[in-house]
Amino acid sequence: MSYDIAVLGGGPAGMAAATEAAQRGARVVLLEESAAPGGQVYRAPPSGFIGPVDADRRAGDALRAALLASGAELRTGCRVWGVGGGPLVPQREPAAPFRLDALDSDGRSFAMEARALVLCCGTHERIIAFPGWTLPGVLGLAAATILLKAHGVLPGRRVVVAGAGPLLYAVAAKLLKAGAEVAAVVDLAHRTEWLRALPRLAARPDLLAQGLAWRATLVARGVRVIAGAGVTAARGDEVLQAVQVEGAWIACDALCIGHGLVPATEATRTFRAAHRYAPAEGGWVPVLDADQRCSVPLLYTAGDGAGVRGAAAAPASGRVAALAALHDLGLLPDHAAARVAPARDLARAAKAGGAMARMMALRPALVRAIPPETIVCRCEGVTRAEIEAACADGAADMNQMKQFTRCGMGPCQGRICGETAAELVGMHCGGREKAGFATGRLPLRPVPMDALLGEFDYADIPVPKPAPI
Amino acid sequence: MIAGMDVIAEHDRMKDVAHPLRIAGISRPADVTFSFAGTSLSAPEGENLAAALIACGIRRLGEGQDAARPRAALCMMGVCQQCLLRVDGRLVQACLVPVRAGMVVTAT
Amino acid sequence: MFDVAVIGAGVMGCSTALFLARAGMKVVLLDRGAICREASGVNAGTLTMQMTRAALIPYALRAHEMWLRMPEWCDGGHVLATACPGLSVAFTEHEAAMLEERAHFRRQAGAPIELVTPARAREIEPGLSERVIAAGHCPIDGFTSAYLTGRAFRPALLNAGVELREDCAVQGIAPGFVLETAAGTVQAKRIVLAGGVWLQDMAAWLRVTLPIKVLINQLVVTERMAPVMRTVLGVASGLLSLKQYANGSVLIGGGWQGIGDRARGGLAVKPESFLGNVRLAAHAVPALRDARVLRAWLGLEAETADALPAIGPIPGIDDAWIIGSVHSGYTSGPYLGKLLAQAICGQAPELPLFPIDRLLAQEKAA
Ligand SMILES: Cc1cc2nc3c(=O)[nH]c(=O)nc-3n(C[C@H](O)[C@H](O)[C@H](O)COP(=O)(O)OP(=O)(O)OC[C@H]3O[C@@H](n4cnc5c(N)ncnc54)[C@H](O)[C@@H]3O)c2cc1C
Ligand SMILES: Cc1cc2nc3c(=O)[nH]c(=O)nc-3n(C[C@H](O)[C@H](O)[C@H](O)COP(=O)(O)OP(=O)(O)OC[C@H]3O[C@@H](n4cnc5c(N)ncnc54)[C@H](O)[C@@H]3O)c2cc1C
Ligand code: FES
């Protein structure tokens, strides 16, 4: 299977990129792990689940409809575990077509090639460790939006919502509407921080209105909003029973907590594209030109994976990336004219999105406050004290710290602990830039060996020539 | 007792009675039964497995091999790997699969 | 002015520097990156007699002992070295013949390898596939967590008075052993080149032409899983090395090749090598089918023209030494560093070195 353009990730950015490219006649494939395209904001509910239609649902449905009509080939339920080709070829060989290895929904492995690759892998959530954060009942804040919006399930009956950014109020309002009790909203930002962001949000009156409506709901229902504070501990035997805020314990059976979003850069790191550390955009992001081109030829990144700018900016950046790819492949005669509208949309949406992203930037004080014995890496059970001991033993970047402690070597490959760990390493070695990031390697996601292996004959394994005795 | 703790106690009693965590106003497919760690549960067919377990009051997903035990769904989007379970013997992330009638879910 | 400058802080450079300092020399150890972050920190950590070249077995046996007792000679530093039996297996008649021949040579070199029946092999390794038709068993085998190597050596080096300069690439060597680095020059009475696959570039600083082939070795690790095996497992051809760590993860290696080079490092796996390697592993231990693959990576291993080590004085240049290009070099590393330190200190090494005159002569003839 061979395409002009492969788009990895079917969120708003990927859907728009694939639609734009296919509408203009390119052979396009879109690969998405979920059963339906939509991504994190516009995640489609499972089939047969019919709920009230809200603005997000309408926006998602519109993107899905355009995608289906565009002629792009859609491969959902398809987990891409391998990316290769492009610059990843032996020395002095010309760049190869990109190659993607994936598992389909039946767990079978397959591969495909494309001349250009648009990465729209989105973000994952940053949750800075605190005592008790591994207790069942503690859930991500963005995770809560998925649970509530896509699956229609409450995380608990009496919920504390904590962290940073607009999702706090979205989740709290949704919880109230669905009948849960919100024990408190604990916002790391002071009111003044929100006031400072207001002028930029004014670029998007719709979002501003939505935000004000969420807050009004909270006020009307008498929900306690604790500003400029964070959850310092969680406790419970076996499951969560209470969280600590400003020294007092608040009883709850669920805590939804998130400290911002981190761009998913595993694919761009695997391609050895250039990255820069941009805390206001979520952390390490690929270096891009004005048309979403990475430093690697024919590789593009769009959406929040290119730097957090929110759902509204994602489709516009996807279209800009698709147009650049078409142009670079010689498939678009008038690139300059075609890019005007999406580039303008992107600039506009990025303004409000950027202000929100800044509210969600990592707050180093949270990391400094982690007690030494708190587990930072869940998969491997590595504590802050162990990470700092490794730094004292000479680990001066993320890769060496990982070697010395196993932090980030488990199944999540550092996606959950990475931000906390990098901040700790940075405190010792002179900053996040010096601390760097873990080298990108395959697979992008854990792959079940069984699916990978398939049926085979021993004789068909291409065993290389043995070494001399 | 911590203020509000009685609410939780009440919820713990409720959890076998109905599905108080499923949000009203959504039309869902008919329930099917499946098992988790030997206990029979029911959930609408096609509901996300991690969500279904939460709705059934099950948040502790087993001890697993990892150091921070017990595990529980954290990210709901396939990243954290904390929801790893076996479905009919195969390792799957609960937050990425739907509930099917008769599926046998066990710890890793 | 240092007595010795050791260039390259892999297992070869670290052990040479440590034993030189312990012998009373003033040592500087320089690396362009962090300590043991190339081959010595990313290798499979197998301490095996069944993959080591026969000529290296006497060295490997002594080094095996050193790894197991590392805390005693390395100020408590350790790499979680674990002793266990090793099995090398055959699935076909052809491989069985190869197994027999190879076991014979290695036995002659001192490795206690015996051929065993498939039934006996499965007693030793219950996880082994039914498809095995013959096996070589070596009671002396084992493995380490190689990623701990830098952490294990570092305190001992510092305690011994070695000046460790990380992130300090040597760019060239001016007459009088003046090493050029971005942070200024460093002068020493003697130098040791310990640059792994970069030995070729380092030799060129001294106008010595020493071709070093670069192998791009691939490794694959699984998620933690319940115990499925308890030995170090290989195949007759040497193209599999398989073991399960105490934490449950299984490491799959064997020298399958990926994409990369000296300049860019280990860049990417080749899909066919990746698949071939894991299939071979699952063919040997069927329970691996149940695992999930977490990560694959690549490291660079050096090889000389005759695939034997380069360890000894550099001909024609007094007080310049070289160490590296050792097949299964992690296994033998600490012992070889100790030997070279003995030679540099003017003692007769316990076992012979591997002087490079042979390689330079070949190069001249060619
Ligand atoms: C849980 C969550 C909730 C959020 N809620 C909001 C919100 O309410 N409002 C807002 O403005 N922003 C929200 N955000 C930010 C959000 O990321 C963006 O606004 C928006 O979704 C970005 O779109 P995208 O296309 O860049 O990425 P996403 O929507 O994240 O889409 C990326 C897609 O790529 C797929 N993918 C990634 N890797 C692979 C792979 N290897 N194989 C196959 N598929 C893959 C994923 O399954 C996903 O569908 C949320 C983020 C998260 C994580
Ligand atoms: C993937 C892989 C798996 C392996 N598995 C095994 C195994 O299971 N068992 C086994 O026994 N062996 C194994 N080996 C072989 C073993 O790892 C090597 O033989 C051994 O580690 C080599 O050590 P070294 O010190 O010579 O080289 P290296 O560890 O590569 O060290 C060389 C050092 O020189 C430094 N350097 C380079 N240029 C400069 C410069 N200009 N200035 C300063 N410093 C410089 C580098 O940064 C590096 O740190 C494996 C190798 C690989 C790559
Ligand atoms: S809840 Fe994080 S992977 Fe499923």
Give an overview of the whole structure.
The complex is a heterotrimer of chains A (469), B (108) and C (366). With 469 residues, chain A is of the alpha/beta class. Chain A has three domains: 2-124 and 262-356, FAD/NAD(P)-binding domain, CATH 3.50.50; 127-259, FAD/NAD(P)-binding domain, CATH 3.50.50; 370-435, Orthogonal Bundle (Arc Repressor Mutant, subunit A). Chain A has helices at residues 12-23, 55-70, 141-150, 167-177, 191-201, 205-220, 266-270, 313-328, 335-359, 364-368, 384-392, 398-405, 418-429, 432-435, 449-453; strands spanning 2-8, 28-31, 73-75, 79-86, 96-103, 109-119, 123-125, 138-140, 158-163, 181-187, 225-227, 231-235, 242-245, 248-251, 254-258, 261-263, 275-278, 283-286, 299-301, 375-377, 382-383, 447-448. In chain A, helix 2 links the parallel strand 2 (28-31) and strand 3. In chain A, helix 3 (141-150) packs parallel to helix 4, helix 5 packs antiparallel against helix 9 (335-359) and helix 11 runs parallel beside helix 13 (418-429). The longest helix of chain A is centred in the C-terminal third of the chain and has 25 residues, at 335-359. Chain A is globular. Chain B is α+β, with helices and mostly antiparallel strands. Chain B has one domain (30-106): Ubiquitin-like (UB roll), CATH 3.10.20.440. In chain B, 16% of the residues lie in helices and 21% in strands. Chain B has helices at 5-14, 49-55; strands spanning 31-36, 39-44, 84-87, 90-93, 104-106. Chain B has a five-stranded mixed β-sheet, covered by helices on one side. In chain B, a hairpin with a 2-residue loop joins strand 3 and strand 4. By secondary structure, chain C is an alpha/beta fold. Chain C folds into two domains: 2-44 and 148-212 and 305-365, 3-Layer(bba) Sandwich (FAD/NAD(P)-binding domain); 84-141 and 213-303, D-Amino Acid Oxidase, subunit A, domain 2 (D-Amino Acid Oxidase, Chain A, domain 2, 2-Layer Sandwich), CATH 3.30.9.10. In chain C, the strands form three sheets. In chain C, strands 1, 2, 6, 7, 8, 9, 17 and 18 form an eight-stranded mixed β-sheet that branches. Chain C has an eight-stranded mixed β-sheet with strand order 4-5-3-11-12-13-10-16, sandwiched between helices. A two-stranded antiparallel ribbon of chain C has the order 14-15. In chain C, helix 1 packs parallel to helix 10. In chain C, 59% of the residues are buried. The mean pLDDT of chain C is 97. Chains in contact: A-B, A-C, B-C. At the A-B interface, strand 8, helix 3 and strand 14 of A face helix 1 and helix 2 of B. The structure holds flavin-adenine dinucleotide (2 copies) and FE2/S2 (inorganic) cluster. Residues 7-13, 30-33, 37-40, 42-46, 169-170, 194-196, 198, 217, 219, 241, 253, 299-301, 324, 326, 328-331, 333 of chain C line the site of one flavin-adenine dinucleotide. Residues 8-14, 31-34, 39-41, 79-80, 120-125, 142-143, 145-146, 167, 170, 261, 303-305, 310-311, 314, 444-445 of chain A line the site of one flavin-adenine dinucleotide. Chain A: Residues 376-452 form the SoxA A3 domain. Chain A: This is NAD(P)/FAD-dependent oxidoreductase.
